[in-house]
Design the sequence.
């Protein structure tokens, strides 16, 4: 029986899809399909989660002979139980975490929830302010199966999550990738990742970010597509690709006007998280505390 020996834990919207794709192209590495089986996320009610061990291990049936075998479920880092469950299943596991400015993570994750049909509030500040009510299970959009998926603050507390992770594993078993490093020099970042996983150096094509960020033209249509997709899977109807084509037609560019005052609020809100990351990872992240000035700014992300 072949078990995974490395896990990309998250965070979401931090380049994990690109990293998993890179590794899947390496002749000595195997990445599960789907890349996010979500098996160890048992504390979250997630769609399409593989919930039994036999089904999970079938994902790795053809992985024999590979040096690095893994998966990339981005909800593991924020989960309370995923890492302990992984360590019980594979005590010698190695871990990869991708990080970015938590303020940028919030905007990107909010846009992703809109695209998925899980979020009904198009304005980022309104979605941020709605968290208190939503974490209590109130005002949850019909397309969202788990209220915690809309708890953006929890997702973005990267310092807290990393601190918890490093209380459970030794630092040499963890490799951290920052999204700016992927953008600045993807090949160097990839070489370091290969070294960490014990893989031979392997050349990358030019880095092209995956999962570029977009938002729906119609939130109602996005939510209807979400619900219909879940229902079809539950009754066992095969995917025909029609919903995906409609979903793509329903997307538009995701430049969102961000008021500097709101961004400043978020920068201050996450300041302690950034400080915690600097201490844990011995890296200067002072540029994450910068607040852009001027009128409402279009928010764009280089990787989403």
Sequence:
């Amino acid at each position: 029986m072949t078990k995974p020996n490395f896990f990309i834990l998250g965070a979401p919207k931090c380049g994990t899809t690109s990293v998993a794709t890179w590794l899947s192209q390496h002749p000595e590495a195997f990445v599960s399909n789907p890349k996010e089986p979500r098996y160890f996320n048992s504390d979250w009610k997630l769609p399409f989660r593989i919930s039994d061990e036999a089904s999970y291990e079938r994902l790795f049936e053809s992985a024999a002979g590979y040096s690095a075998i893994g998966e990339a479920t981005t909800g593991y880092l924020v989960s309370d139980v995923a890492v302990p469950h992984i360590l019980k299943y594979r005590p010698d596991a190695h871990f990869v975490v991708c990080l970015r400015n938590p303020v940028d993570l919030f905007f990107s994750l909010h846009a992703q929830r809109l695209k998925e049909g899980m979020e009904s509030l198009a304005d980022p500040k309104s979605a941020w302010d709605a968290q208190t009510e939503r974490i209590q299970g109130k005002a949850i959009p019909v397309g969202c199966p788990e209220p915690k998926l809309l708890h953006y603050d929890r997702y973005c507390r990267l310092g807290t999550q990393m601190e918890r992770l490093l209380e459970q594993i030794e630092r040499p078993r963890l490799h951290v990738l920052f999204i700016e490093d992927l953008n600045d020099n993807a090949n160097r970042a990839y070489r370091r990742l290969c070294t960490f996983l014990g893989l031979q150096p392997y050349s990358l094509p030019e880095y092209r970010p995956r999962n570029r960020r977009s938002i729906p033209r119609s939130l109602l249509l996005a939510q209807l597509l979400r619900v219909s997709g879940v229902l079809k899977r539950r009754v066992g109807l095969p995917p025909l690709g029609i919903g995906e084509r409609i979903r793509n037609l329903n997307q538009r560019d995701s430049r969102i006007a961000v008021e500097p005052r709101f961004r400043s609020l978020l920068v201050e809100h996450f300041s302690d998280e950034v400080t915690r990351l600097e201490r844990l990872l011995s890296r200067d992240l002072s540029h994450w505390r910068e607040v852009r000035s001027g009128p409402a700014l279009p928010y764009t992300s280089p990787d989403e």
